[in-house]
Amino acid sequence: MGAGSVIKDGVEYTAMAFACGIFLHGFFDDRIKVTWKRLGIIFCSIVILSLLDILMQIKLGWNLILIPAFFLCTAVVLQWDIKSDLAGFIKSLVFTIGTDIAISVYSLELVMLGASLAGVSDAAAKAGMRETGESIGFYLAYVGVLILIGAVLYFLTVRRGAAMLFRGSDIILTIAMGTIILLSLGLYMYIENNEMVKLYRTGLEAMLLLLLLVMPVMIYKNRQSAYFIEMSAHNESYLEAELAASRQYRESQEETRAFRHDMRNNLNLLAGLMQEKKYEEAEQYISDLNGELEALSPRIVTGDDMLDSLISSKLGEVERQGIELTVNGVIDGGLNWKPIDICAVFANALDNAMRACASMPEDSQKYIRITFRKTELQRVITIANSTTEQPDCAKLLSGGGRYTTKSDKSRHGFGLHNIRRTVEKYGGMLKVSCEGNEFRLTIVLT
Fold first, then answer.
1. Over the stretch 265-295, which tens digit does the pLDDT of each residue have?
2. Which residue ranges form the domains of the chain, and what is each CATH number?
3. CA nearest 74: which of 102, 52, 55, 53?
């Protein structure tokens, strides 16, 4: 129980926190960040806790604080800067602690079964024991498996920027996997202690090890397949919005060119009317020309051509639903975003706003107000819409931002999540609020 034991505790529990954090980021909430700084904080905390644990053992004869304190420390550090109410924070803490325990047990069983199949029965028997003489080979294998799990998950999710947040069915599959493993291990312990059936021990160990390795891959492949289907559907909707906006822009340009081409003839005709002193006809002709000019003038001016076209492409549907749409302010210099990212944010936001307005009574005021403001350090974009619903705004931005009131929750609720991810991609921040009968989505760009 010296310095070596303290460092060993620090390495082991930090490896557990690493694997847990990457798993949570990739499959439950991509706001959880695993950084060297956070891992360093966890390592230092574990070293201090381990020293305190040893002192308590020496002075009091008992030491019960290291493991529970570690799980609490990991949960707090990993989600430190995620804003939520107290209930949401506690729920997330409990969930993080459960995930950490599950990954540590999973890794432990992998090493135990591998050691037993390799004939290293003593190492398997000592699994999880905090005693002098614990097999260093078992310890290294356990830490190695934890780091390997974290590394694999990192390259599958974080590195590729493809956080595939679990749905309810994925969580059920994961719980089913854990249940099967526990039942199988119970059967394994029965066989290990029953002389009559020890003959089947090696075969069962091999089957359990295969189960531990194959089931996570099956769950991941199932989630990956669903994820790509969802992303394909979203990308298709973004491309449709981009094409509609491009078509709107092209049509307006063609109309402008046609009017410019006819302008010489119009001026010649107007000059002829004036020479013939047909002033009333000339006045009527000028009035008609002004009407055409107003029709050609863009109704939406935001300072970003792609955004102008996108909003203009939605005007027809907005007017059919009896929604009043207003745009105030401009974006100096434009957004400088990729067209598909503009669609990911504003097409989603406008579609959500139109759906909220559509659910209102016919005689009520339906509106969407888009506002652009600029301060010395920030640009603020606000999209406000009338609504009869009172969504839980804390829930909207928790759990990865996936929330929907639709009955088919497996296929909907990703809009706000994609908006937030895109805004954060450009260094911005997303806020939502609901006061009275108005929902507000605010984008803050630095």
1. 666 666 776 777 776 777 776 776 666 555 5
2. 3-163 (no CATH), 300-445 (3.30.565.10)
3. 102
